[in-house]
Structure formats: structure tokens, C-alpha cells
Design a protein that fits this description.
acetylation, globular, about 40% helix, nucleus, uracil DNA N-glycosylase activity, alpha/beta, mitochondrion, hydrolase
């Protein structure tokens, strides 16, 4: 009996809870494993400074299934506990499948153009769009922008018209490429980053909105004095959580021909933005540099 009692005591000792140090080590190991998974899943063309701050998203269930590997054409190691069978197809798995079946814009290497233009901490202005242009050779990863020689779409033409009355010496650049703004710290971010050809909003509610919400949230929490231009109800809803005491928010209707005459023309958002940047001690945007 004494031997059995001693054995039971020994077993109880072996079954004692882990020490705080061991639990902390396990936690750190789990975090490191998730970070390694996230690093493997970074999509192609994702800017380095943005990757450092946002890489955690790439290991989350809504994003991770095929993730970047889906765009690169290879499958990552299976991670069952991150991919419960009850979940719908994860974001990048969906995009990869869409590219097999349809023409999808923009091309894979241009989905994240907006992360390549400037350091994430150098963002001074944010213009929010809804989803990419769905015509051939239009979308290239910056909202409202099209690459040469594609003619500027109607909404961008209206933006240029407002600039011509708002900014001294602004003249139509003869093209629709807004890269010059993006390199100065103007984030041109669509809420949804891909679209099926000729089918507007065809990739909405698949996960992009969650990802771009995280982008806006990071800027909101980590930067100061950013000017957010929210044009139309969609952008205003997406920007509704922006801290107005920490940042500046300019709102008006969308520059679409359907609404432009209800407040976009005459809004003077571009000159107002520069006034706000100057008050914050930041260099204003040269809107003419296109």
C-alpha cells in the first residue's frame, strides 16, 4: 500500500501544471511559428515596410489557405487548425481559383502596387476607393489611377477638373497614372483589391474588405495628422472609425458623373489637404507632379 501511495505521489508530481516560464516559452514559440507561416504567405509585390507591419494578417484564417502560394502557383504546407473545413474558401484561394477561370484585374504583380510607392510610415494622405476598374489594362493597384496610354476614366477626369480650379497652375497631365502622387505619400487604396473582368464588385465580401480595414486601422492607430479623403457613402462608411482628433477627414460625394455635381466640384479637397499638412509640419503634396 505504501509503495502504491508513493507511486501515486510520483505520478501526481509528474502531472503538475507547467511553470509560468514554460507557458511563456510555449506562447513565444507559437507566436514565432505563426510569424514564420505569415512570412511564407506574403503575397508577391508586397512592399517591405508594409509587410513588416501587416504580415500577421497573412496567417489568419480568412487569408491563409492558399495565400501567396496561390498567386505563385504552388501550395503551402497544410495547416489544418488554421483551415477548418467549415470555413468558406479563403481570400487568396478564391482569387487563385478566379484567375484560373476568368480574367481578373489587376495582374497578380500589381495587386499591391499601393505598398510599393512609399514607406508605410510616410503616408500623409489617404484616398479610399471601392474596387478596381474592370476594363482591360486599366487597374494597376492604385485607386482611380490607370497606366499610360489608357485614357483617364470619367471619375478621374472629374478629379482633374476639380484640381484645375483648386490648385494653381494645375493642368491636365494627358494621362491617368497617379504614381506621382503615391510616391509623395498619397495612399490610393481600394477597399477590394481584385475584380473579375467586366463585372464590377464581383470580388466584394470575399475578404479584401477585412484586410484593407486592417490597413486603415493601422494608419489610424500608428500615425498622426493623416488627411483622409472620403468620397461617397462607401468610403465614408469604411472610414467611419477614423479618430477625428488624431487625423483630418474631408468628405464629399463621389467624383462619378452620377454625383459629381452634388458637391465634388468646388470641394477644394486638394488645397485643403495641403493647408492641413502644412499645419502639421508636413510637406504639402505637389498635385501637379504626375
Amino acid at each position: 500500500a505504501a509503495k502504491r501511495a508513493k507511486a501515486a505521489g510520483d505520478e501526481a508530481g509528474k502531472a503538475s501544471p507547467l511553470s509560468p516560464e514554460q507557458l511563456e516559452r510555449i506562447r513565444k514559440n507559437k507566436e514565432a511559428a505563426l510569424q514564420r507561416l505569415a512570412e511564407r504567405n506574403v503575397p508577391p509585390g508586397f512592399g517591405e515596410s508594409w509587410r513588416r507591419q501587416l504580415a500577421g494578417e497573412f496567417s489568419k484564417p480568412y487569408f491563409v489557405e492558399v495565400s501567396a502560394a496561390g498567386l505563385r502557383g504552388r501550395r503551402p504546407p497544410a495547416v489544418p487548425w488554421l483551415n477548418p473545413p467549415s470555413l468558406p474558401p479563403q481570400l487568396m484561394a478564391f482569387v487563385a481559383e478566379e484567375r484560373k477561370r476568368y480574367t481578373v484585374y489587376p495582374p497578380p504583380d500589381q495587386v499591391f502596387t499601393w505598398t510599393q510607392m512609399c514607406d508605410i510610415r510616410d503616408v500623409k494622405v489617404v484616398i479610399l476607393g471601392q474596387d478596381p476598374y474592370h476594363g482591360p489594362n486599366q487597374a494597376h493597384g492604385l485607386c482611380f489611377s490607370v497606366q499610360k496610354p489608357v485614357p483617364p476614366p470619367p471619375s478621374l477626369e472629374n478629379i482633374y477638373k476639380e484640381l484645375s480650379t483648386d490648385i494653381e497652375d494645375f493642368t491636365h497631365p494627358g494621362h491617368g497614372d497617379l504614381t506621382g502622387w503615391a510616391k509623395q505619400g498619397v495612399l490610393l487604396l481600394n477597399a477590394v483589391l481584385t475584380v473579375r473582368a467586366h463585372q464590377a464588385t464581383s470580388h466584394k465580401e470575399r475578404g479584401w474588405e477585412q484586410f484593407t480595414d486592417v490597413v486603415v486601422s493601422w494608419l489610424n492607430k500608428n500615425l498622426h495628422g493623416v488627411v483622409f479623403m472620403l468620397w461617397g457613402a462607401y468610403a465614408q462608411k469604411k472610414g467611419s472609425s477614423i479618430d477625428r482628433k488624431r487625423h483630418h477627414v474631408l468628405q464629399t460625394v463621389h467624383p462619378s458623373p452620377l454625383s459629381v455635381n452634388r458637391g465634388f466640384f468646388g470641394c477644394r479637397h486638394f488645397s485643403k489637404t495641403n493647408e492641413l499638412l502644412k499645419k502639421s509640419g508636413k510637406k504639402p503634396i505637389d498635385w501637379r507632379a504626375l
